[in-house]
Write a structure and sequence with these properties.
The protein has 223 residues and is mainly alpha-helical. The protein is 54% helix and 9% strand. A hairpin with a 5-residue loop joins β2 and β3.
Amino acid sequence: MMDLTGIGLYTLTQASRLSGAKATEVSRWLFGYKTNGGKKIPPLWQSQVQEPDEKVIGFRDLLELRFIKAFVNHGVPVQVIRAALTSAKEIFKTDYPFTSHRFLTDGRSIFYETLNQEEHELTDLARRQLVFESIIRPQLYRGIEFSAQGTAIRWYPGKAKTVVLDPEISFGRPILSAFGIPTEIIAQAMKAEQNIKAVAAQFEIPVAQARAAVRFEEQLLAA
């Protein structure tokens, strides 16, 4: 098995809950698929995690998926996303350009250029340009922390930064940022105990932190 230190590890189900994409979408985008006619469609990129017997992805894959799912949700065809991804990879020299700091600042021009090459309906093109500027960029970069080299290194999915995904800790699973305890474990304890104060005492954390962990996990299940 490959060394997963600093990479993170997520099953298709976990990736689906955290990215908002369906498990089938995660599988198609990260591992490719065959059309009904037997044509092989390659993945949008190669996952960080290369395990021959299991479909799993890494932290950078997960963040990139969020970006792609948002584009798809706003009507951008996958072939346009693929073209933009290819261009950005070449320009930024990274396999994960959508969640690099450079794409945050310079990505608009690449996205616009790709749309101009791939799309022909001007009204639709204008709408999709607004998607990048007004919807996708503010939402998807919120909570991401970057290294000095512009690489995404951790993600706080909530405004309060109570929960964090850090590939250096617990294989990138959501944890309470102040205590390092996986939110999933706290939610499981709550399911067993049915008493938030007892759960907080069990893990020696404030009740508010225990509630935040349980609430986070409930939101994932409801997504």
